[in-house]
């Protein structure tokens, strides 16, 4: 009979759980015919768990750095498996929450569910202190991950192409969750904290109720609801003093103050071929009577061919050609035949006035995507049932009202309504930048408290 090599035995502390990879390594040293018998002996005499499912190592924790920080804050004490009945009661509360997570648009198997259920009634002796610490970390990982998903929403990064806001508040969000977890002393504390993580607004409650109680939901509607519920958690957990939310799917803009809608209006957003990106940024400036600096793609692909055919259209459209030094060029003196997509040393801008494509107001955003909110000279677009018609920017139905909220007692309405031509742009900086969320929620609650589903115009739910 081949003995177990000493090097293997030295790597197996009493009661240590081993992984499937370690078993494979062992089998390379042990006669294949004797391996099953030897494994049985190891299980009986060394208490090994060969499932590999209960190891709370950094490799299989979802948030290992946060778990580590939690125990640092908690003095490296056991939280879920400390002696006494209280810890068992806390484990039961946590498991019950995870059990019901499907009704909240979450996937319970994300939260180590099998390990959670298998070890809910486990007890430890003093000799099992290492195993107790490992399993305690696993339960803490469940709690942290679950709390983050309920508090902040989950899967948001798949939908947002540029997120300036979340990154700014990431550490504060994590500290909030950890400090509240270590403050839990009883099951009542834990239940209260978990309930406090969800938004309390009526719209959120109705969305969640629709997911739980509407038995006629299609698979697409269910996906729409789950996505919107998670968006809602994310948007509202910040509790900003002011913020703007643009929903591409419903083509609406809502201005919030402390999660209360103060202003709602229609917007026109990007065509399916020139989509408005989903992102977060800050509105840091409002420009009165802005120039429209035509994007290069529009200038070369649309306007240049038109101007070569009819240079007088430059005057009709109140456009200007600007050279590399910022000078306005007399387009009447140009030889248009020599210009093409590969050679056009000018940029095109539209001068100010009510016939400017940006109207009389532009809301500058801090994202690098070249997208912003603006007024428009085509007010009839807001009457259409198809609001997906821009090149990507967001046309706002009532820009003056929005500006008056962002800049109270600053904007001169009469100045804007006068529609001065060739007015020099007037930039006004906000004293405090306002967060802006541009999202894609295809399920919302309307004014009649009914869940409304919007068409997936961009085909993002496929």
**Number of DSSP E strands:** 16
Cα end-to-end separation: 59 Å
Number of domains: 4
The assigned CATH architecture of the largest domain is Beta Barrel
Radius of gyration, CA atoms, in whole angstroms: 30 Å
Q: Could you state the CATH homologous superfamily of the largest domain?
A: L,D-transpeptidase catalytic domain-like
General shape:
elongated
Give helix % range. Answer: 25-40%
Q: Strand sequence of the main sheet, in spatial order? A: 2-3-4-13-11-10-5-14
Fraction in beta strands: 15-25%
Structural class: alpha+beta
> If you consult CATH, what is the topology of the largest domain?
L,D-transpeptidase catalytic domain-like
CATH class of the largest domain reads Mainly Beta
* Major pleated sheet: 8 strands, mixed, barrel
What integer is the average pLDDT?
Answer: 88
Count of discrete alpha- or pi-helical segments spanning 4 or more residues: 15
Regions with pLDDT < 50 over 5+ consecutive residues? 1-55
